Structure formats: structure tokens, C-alpha cells
Amino acid sequence: MSIIYAIDIAGTFAFAISGALVAIRKKFDVFGVLIIAFVTAVGGGMTRDVLINAHPINWIGDINYIWTILTAVVVTFLFRSKIAPLRKTMFLFDTIGISVFTLIGVQKGLSFDLHPFVALVMGMSSAVMGGVIRDVLTNEIPLIFHREIYASACLAGGMVYLLLHSFNINEDFLFVISAAIIVTVRTIAVQYKLELPRIKKDVFGK
């Protein structure tokens, strides 16, 4: 098992837990919790694979994703009172997860001979679409639209990856550097409560 694959599985586990916690707070039944955990964990990769016509779709081609999500749901049910307060730990896993998902998405886009800009979009989709689907299904405004520098961190790391990739740098080193950029940008943004500018209502005369 490669380090990147192991981190991918860990990120899937963390995303599934975050989805399950949201569903439990919304008082969904067991099936609802499982569905929200599932779409949060693999929704981004699945969206990417559908858009670029990649088969088999990520979780269909690797049963380990299913077992990881089921395990995460069981762990959440059994230990939710202890998991919920561990925000720093979950934030770390979530941030590592989006960094890996972004770069895996970019890599997959490039492997399908997509334009680098399109590959970058596929990377961001891999990282954020699971959370967007989760928020829509749970009747929340998606996080990327109103809080934190989230997708922008993925964009920054993905751009660094594409830039360094053109210089034929060692792939593992390239992956680590680009992932570190995403983790650093998001961590700093959250630490100092940085946000993108918002459009004021009075611009539209309201």
C-alpha cells in the first residue's frame, strides 16, 4: 500500500465521519446517516470520474472505500460523544484529505490528457464536491460558498502541482510539496479567520 493511497483512505474515513456527524445532528435515521457519510466521502471523486468518463468509478473499482465508509459510520455511532469534540484532529484529517483528493484529481485529469486548467478543476471537484452534496442534502449552504478559504487552498496547491510538474520533478516530492501548500494555506486561513471578499448587498441597491 502506497503512502498516497493510505492517506486517501484516511481522508475518506475522516470525510465519512464528518458526514455522519452532520446527519446525526440533523436527526437522520440510520440509512440517512449512511447515505450522507457515503456522498461526503466519495461524492467528489465520483463526480470527477463521471465528468471525465473514467471507469470504473473510484469506489466501484475498489471495495476498500466501501469498507472504510461503513467502518467510519459504525465508529461514529459508537463513539460520537468522544469524536465530536475532537475538532482539531478532524480538521487535520479533513485538510490532509482535501489536499490528497485535489492532487489525485489533478493527476487523473492529466492522465486522461485533459487541458491543465480542466485537470485543475477536476482536482478541486474531487476535494470539495462531496461536502457540497452533503450540505445540499442536509439543507445547508455549502461551506465553500460562505466560510473559510477552502476551495481556494485546493486551487493554490493544484496550481503549484501543475507548475512544478512541467519541470519533470520527482512525482513523490512534487506531491508532498503541493499537498503541503494546501494544508498550509487552509491552516493559516482558519487560524487567522481569513475569508474571500463578499459582495455587499447595497451593490444591488438592497
Descriptive notes:
By secondary structure, the chain is mostly helical. Helix content is 74%, strand content 0%. The protein has helices at 3-25, 30-51, 58-61, 64-83, 87-111, 116-137, 151-165, 171-191. Helix 2 packs antiparallel against helix 6. The radius of gyration is 17 Å and the shape is globular.
Highlighted features:
74% helix, transmembrane, 8 helices, mainly alpha
Mean pLDDT: 88
Strand content range: under 5%
Largest sheet: none
In sequence order, what are the helices and strands, one letter per element?
HHHHHHHH
Count helical runs.
8
Task: Offer a concise description of the structure.
The protein has 206 residues and is mostly helical.
Q: What's the structural blueprint in terms of helices and strands?
A:
Elements (H helix, E strand, L loop, with lengths): L2 H23 L4 H22 L6 H4 L2 H20 L3 H25 L4 H22 L13 H15 L5 H21 L15
